[in-house]
Design the sequence.
């Protein structure tokens, strides 16, 4: 990340950051770079290439359940830097600031859950596949994980903290199935059980 420009505080500006009113805004991702990262396999944080079998996705616990990510993967080093340095990822009670954002800013792909989950998951996998999000954009469906680590406040999350985040977010996923048939609910319940089975007995490595 040494090649990245610095913000006013001296912190590296991630590659994905878009400009708002002519100035880089870390709250906003550049949609063009997102498509480029998906197409070329470059790191979402630093913009450099990643070995396909070493991709690490920074996701929330609910994405561990449905194994879908709106954001491309990163190098492990870049992913670990993100969960330590990003205020939203490292501070469980932080909220995304929406002041001064342009009114024309488009929603991201898929149906985002508007909350801070309090726990981040580093999901390493051998690959992913592009799938339509049903709204004219695409998401990434993640292959089975080869390793997992769980983070909270820049440290390893406890099993209790991980479970609390998953269980508090599950009703939000269930609400998206309200208009679906019973099979979708059963699929979600199976995915939930599979996610819980991946959690460490204690600590954050699995």
Sequence:
């Amino acid at each position: 990340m040494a090649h990245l420009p610095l913000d006013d505080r001296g912190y590296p500006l991630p590659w994905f950051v878009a400009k708002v009113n002519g100035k880089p805004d870390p709250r906003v991702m550049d949609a063009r770079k997102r498509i480029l990262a998906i197409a070329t396999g470059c790191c979402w944080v630093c913009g450099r290439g990643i070995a396909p079998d070493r991709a690490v996705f920074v996701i929330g616990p609910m994405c561990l359940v449905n194994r879908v990510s709106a954001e491309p993967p990163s190098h492990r080093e870049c992913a670990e830097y993100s969960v330590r340095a990003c205020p939203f990822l490292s501070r469980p009670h932080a909220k995304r600031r929406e002041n001064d954002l342009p009114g024309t800013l488009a929603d991201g792909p898929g149906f985002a859950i508007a909350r801070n989950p309090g726990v981040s998951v580093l999901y390493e996998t051998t690959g992913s596949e592009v799938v339509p999000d049903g709204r004219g954009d695409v998401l990434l469906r993640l292959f089975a994980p080869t390793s997992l680590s769980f983070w909270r406040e820049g440290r390893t999350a406890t099993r209790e903290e991980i479970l609390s985040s998953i269980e508090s977010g599950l009703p939000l996923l269930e609400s998206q199935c309200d208009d679906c048939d019973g099979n979708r609910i059963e699929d979600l319940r199976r995915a939930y059980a599979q996610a819980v089975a991946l959690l460490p007995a204690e600590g954050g490595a699995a």
User: Anything to note?
Assistant: The helical segments are 31-40, 61-66, 76-85, 87-90, 159-175, 182-197.
